[in-house]
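Dear H.,

Thanks for agreeing to be a second pair of eyes. The structure we're designing against is below in token form, covering all 271 positions.
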């Protein structure tokens, strides 16, 4: 019986592996662009240009949402791409936000502030490692694809930067003056990333839409882009608080699915 190859012939070494389809390159190029954006955010923060630094992290979040979807659309997913994406996510959503919030506020706490920044980065790394392992679990029910375990790394980065959004809006003055309040919030965000709390995943949404909803959705998307460009800190603040408010809803929905699974198992045992 012949062995089924685990990778496309074009991706294998040898005579048939001299060429790699372009569809494998495009998602990885977007991932590298996101990585450049995350590293640039660190440079901008060192130069004291915090608004541009946060914008660079948000741009990396947008690119991270695009690369995986593009890979699935082009059927260009690969193990290499998954590993590259995970490493880029650690820099973009673990290291960069930790350094930004440290330089903007937490360094007022001296060593304690650095420890809190390390906690945020380490929890992001642990969260990504757990996510990669969970991908190989064959026993997950189909409905579980609609949930993450803990906050995903991009959402965690966005939540960690919430004090900076508020600072840019004028609700918080100098971040150093509020370091004592910001520090426990950052710890809570870090714990949320590595927690077992179920949160909604958007990966199963939008696979297909009704024809009559195409124009309204495009209009809303255009409005969202305009608002993000015109009132970025207002919109990001709303997104952050909305995400936090949706966590209890996600927990209830997850428990409802679990209860339905238990009920189905009990009914099958009775039969």
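And this is the sequence the design step returned. I haven't edited it by hand at all.
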């Amino acid at each position: 019986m012949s062995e089924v190859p685990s990778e496309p012939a074009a991706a294998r070494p040898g005579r048939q592996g001299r060429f790699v389809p372009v569809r494998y390159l495009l998602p990885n190029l977007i991932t590298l662009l996101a990585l450049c954006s995350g590293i640039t955010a660190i440079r901008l923060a060192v130069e004291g240009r915090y608004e541009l630094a946060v914008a660079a992290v948000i741009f990396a979040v947008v690119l991270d949402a695009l690369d995986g979807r593009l890979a699935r659309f082009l059927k260009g997913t690969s193990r290499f791409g998954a590993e590259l994406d995970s490493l880029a996510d650690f820099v973009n959503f673990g290291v960069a936000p930790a350094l930004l919030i440290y330089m903007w506020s937490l360094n007022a706490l001296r060593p304690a502030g650095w420890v809190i920044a390390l906690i945020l980065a380490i929890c992001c790394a642990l969260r990504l490692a757990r996510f990669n392992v969970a991908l190989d679990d064959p026993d997950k029910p189909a409905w579980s694809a609609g949930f993450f375990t803990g906050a995903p790394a991009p959402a965690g980065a966005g939540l960690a930067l919430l004090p900076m959004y508020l600072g840019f809006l004028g609700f918080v003055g100098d971040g150093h003056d509020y370091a004592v309040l910001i520090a426990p919030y950052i710890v809570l965000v870090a714990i949320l990333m590595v927690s077992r709390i179920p949160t909604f995943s958007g990966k199963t949404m939008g696979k297909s839409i009704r024809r009559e909803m195409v124009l309204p959705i495009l209009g809303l998307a255009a409005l969202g882009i305009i608002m993000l460009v015109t009132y970025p800190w207002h919109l990001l603040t709303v997104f952050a608080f909305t995400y936090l408010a949706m966590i209890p809803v996600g927990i209830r929905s997850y428990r409802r699915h679990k209860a339905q699974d238990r009920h189905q198992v009990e009914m099958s045992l009775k039969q």
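Two observations from my side: The first strand starts at residue 147 and ends at 149. The beta strands are 147-149, 198-200.

Warmly,
E.
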